[in-house]
């Protein structure tokens, strides 16, 4: 039998066809595998959920300082949880940390007082409220979960005395306890400031222009005692500070020193201050730290709150010394709030919420009616009732495979994770005007009381007309950037991990 005669050109033609066929098969298989993986992922909803280790939600007992955040070349104020293992409060202050019920009840008192600003008959809460030089300061949180009290350490007086102050974007007046107290001083970790041993201390007179500015910054008209200006400031939980309005030198770092800084020298101080020496006011009024240091820092600051009670964060002032995450910052415009009572707060335009990849059917008029502020001192984000109801229903639908747990205080949607090592929770994204959308981390969605009681970290206001509040739990793991001069608020993910 004759062997077929195949020319070299024919062989080459068959060989090319064979190679093309093989390539098509391989490409087809690869596509098939890709589609199959995508289909599985989509079917499971993994792109719209977080898988979280339950133990990662609970507080640790040892300090794990942040490995990223501020530029090491920057002057930095460190931020920590007051009762966490990174805080000197934890070693030297014997007072027990507040319970979760106490934290949430005090948080509601703060929000109530913010809402009461529109009613002058109710108490006003001010606690819960070109190239330039810059500095950065670390921050601490006031309880194991960061309830309203994030602490930074600054120097006051000449020679300077180190004081741990709660920093608060919802307040304007900076104050500290001063010796001698007219009533017994409350216990604080740092030695109480004594103005008599400072060469740079001076009281403000009653007839001075700056004394008259107290009313807009505290909500109370100033009083007068022996020709000295007297301030009063109260808080939603019933805490109060009364004392002399004065000038003093305040020191953030060796190169960031401010003479003639206006502050309150507290003589009568009562309430739930839990060992801090006072408060650093970061609001928008003329007496706030932000305004008093505007010539140096340009009304620009940012912070990253500790992502857990066992980690650290920072508070930074000035454009030049910003966190490592700042290059990825995305901005929204600061909103002008129509209510003059809220003029010193930081307004933002919340426009929508997405749960598990689905945008909730909430009319934008719901958020326009209430308005929204961002507040470092409020723990749990408060939403208009209509918005919260939609969020809760969608979240419950995504969590229906987990056993429910009892509600606690303002948190009505809780689950028992005690039998699980990991849990899968729906992703939640918050959208602001201008195209900014924040994809919340699991720590910004779940408030862990215990493994057997982990709750949705949102709550409803009483009325749709009450102003919404973007709280500090939802700010975790973001660097939050306040560019007040340019009217912008920004967020950068991974601010301090």
TrEMBL record:
The chain crosses the membrane at residues 12-33. Residues 122-133 have a biased composition (Basic and acidic residues). This is Peptidase A1 domain-containing protein. Residues 111-139 are annotated as: Disordered. It comes from the Eukaryota. It comes from Prunus persica. Residues 150-492 form the Peptidase A1 domain. The active site is at 168, 375. SUPFAM superfamilies: Acid proteases. One of its GO terms (molecular function) is aspartic-type endopeptidase activity. Coiled coil: none annotated. InterPro entries: Aspartic_peptidase_A1 (IPR001461), CND41-like (IPR033873), PEPTIDASE_A1 (IPR033121), Peptidase_aspartic_dom_sf (IPR021109), TAXi_C (IPR032799), TAXi_N (IPR032861). Signal peptide: none annotated. CDD domains: cnd41_like. Keywords: Aspartyl protease, Disulfide bond, Hydrolase, Membrane, Protease, Signal, Transmembrane, Transmembrane helix. GO terms for biological process: proteolysis. Belongs to the peptidase A1 family.
